[in-house]
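Re: beginner question about structure tokens

> Can someone show what the tokenized structure looks like for a real chain? I only ever see the sequence side.

Sure, here's an example I had lying around. Input first:
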Amino acid sequence: MSTAIGLSVLAAVPAGALADEIFTYTGNSLSAIGRVGDYITASVTLSCTTCSAGTQYNYGTGNDTISVFTLSVFDASNILLLSLTSTQTPDIHSQGFISLDAAGQIATWDLSIQQTVPNASPTLLYGLFTNGAVQGGAQDQFACFNNVTCHFDELSNTPGSWSSPAIIPVPGPSVGTGLPGLIIAGGVVLGWWRRKRKTAAAT
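And the corresponding structure tokens:
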């Protein structure tokens, strides 16, 4: 009984864990010559031990950070045209930050992503979404350039909107597991065994 109680107490101690907060962004209609109604969406995954309100988080630096973000472009019929992810290859270049307000919502943002696709006609794909914190004005932008199949630059000067974050816990190791847990549990068992021997000797 004592052993079971000891192990139960150990297992019940809460352990710290990482948590991913995933924010999603929906932009307004972009405008470009010959193209009407395209828009961008984005998702930003923030990995932190404690996501703090009023804090700025950068892409790819430190432990509490933006771990990945994705920018997608849709046409007016909501058909996906393409998607860029900050961790993909080849030749990806991503940078930027978000900051949270007192309620834990995104207050300012400036994120950009660029990929050069090597082929017979190299293609430059570029996406940007910002509320003007760095770039000097709010804008959503997407550009595609090569010498053959794509040459356009779309822009909206009206910032889009963010959803409330979806929080996905990332379990950490439980207290009482692994070698330290085995050592403590072994001590509990040994103590119980000695008390049992002492009681048996007394009788």
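Each token stands for a local structural state, so reading them left to right follows the chain. The helical segments are 2-12, 178-202.
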